[in-house]
Amino acid sequence: MENHKELKSVAKFISDFSTCMMAVGAQTSRIERNALRIAKAYHLKAEMLFFQKTMVMTLWDSRNEHSYSMVSRIKPMPLNFEINARLSHLSWRIHDEHIPLNRASKLCQRILARPRVNPWIVLWLVSFANASFCRLFHGDFISMAIVFVATFIGFFFKQQMQKWHWNEFAVFILSAMFASAFGSLGYLCNWGTTPDMALGTSVLYLIPGVPLINGVMDIIDGHIVTGCCRLFNAALLVSCIAIGLSAILFITGLVTI
Amino acid sequence: MMILELLEDGFFAAIAAVGFAIISNPPRRSLFVSALLAAIGHSIRYFLMHFDSFSLSISQASFFASLSIGCLSVFFAKRLAVPAEVFAFPSLLPMIPGMFAYHTLQAIAIYMVCKTEADQLHYINLFYSNGTTTIFILAALVVGVAIPTFLFRRFAFSVTRGNNGKD
């Protein structure tokens, strides 16, 4: 009976750990390695299966006598590489320093509670980034300025809508619309020599780069199902960006260009 | 002349990398590394595409750029005790074919409303050329950055081990 209780609490911890890592955008093979490492540290064996929204795990004791299985939901969380790095580090500490379970789960909670970068800093940096991105496509300085303001407006509304927990697709369509509405000013007012670059780049801050990379990475790692899920999700978001942008093109009458 | 262009390209790629990286809340000390790697990677790509004796296609150039980012990131991963993808992925972000992906979907959207067959063929052509470019760049980026990780597999997955990572 004692054995069963212990299995259960370790299973709970490992599933919390892995669902968090999945949600913050870690590669599947890294999550698997970290989870197996923790199981090994408590002299247990684990087998796991990941999907986009759920994970399934069975934990065995070392003599294959008792097992505990659980299905857990992967709660959506914003991407967070700091949590990814710290949880990976924690899994090695559990393995090397034999940290007891209750202390490990406290450390895990402490990592998850760490504050994110200030949203205003993010807003400014993203705007500068997208303006520089416009430069990489050989846009002129006027186009860069247009892209900067367009990104600032679009990303600001994106942050607000995410705060209100709106539907993810609606957030992407609307912020693409806000950004491209301002981005199209280059055409409408004849500002600068590269208005096409200003319009095209103004929505690119929304491109889900990390899920795209993670998806391909998972596929070449052999986690084809999770990889395809991530890629499909990213493709949906890119379609949302295209919908938002096309809507603005129709409204402003630029679609014929 | 070429040097100036490369420096400018690297500079703007670094700013772009920092801005796109900050969305995914990376550890502070890895942010500078992402900027550096993005600058190196993007200017390598620019060099391979625009220097006359190479003039590679964008996907071939992306492959070599991301390969160099991958090698450097495994090195920095050990020094900072942070998983390599934490700064390798953000430094790839300025090379993500967002513009091509968007043009692909735009072409299929316009194809739907085309009246004449000539127009339809034109947009099908645009759809395929942009779509294949998107897929090839994306695959080249990820495979390039992954090769060093696979080569040094044990090493890459144990960089966060030990006490040099801050808690």
Automatic annotation (TrEMBL), chain B:
The chain crosses the membrane at residues 6-23, 30-48, 54-77, 89-113, 133-152. The keyword Nucleus does not apply. The lineage of its organism: Bacteria, Pseudomonadati, Bacteroidota, Bacteroidia, Bacteroidales. It is a multi-pass membrane protein. One of its GO terms (biological process) is succinate transport. Residues 10-150 form the Threonine/Serine exporter ThrE domain. Keywords: Cell inner membrane, Cell membrane, Membrane, Transmembrane, Transmembrane helix. This is Uncharacterized membrane protein YjjB, DUF3815 family. Belongs to the ThrE exporter (TC 2.A.79) family. It holds the Pfam family ThrE_2. InterPro entries: ThrE_2, ThrE_Dicarb/AminoAcid_Exp.
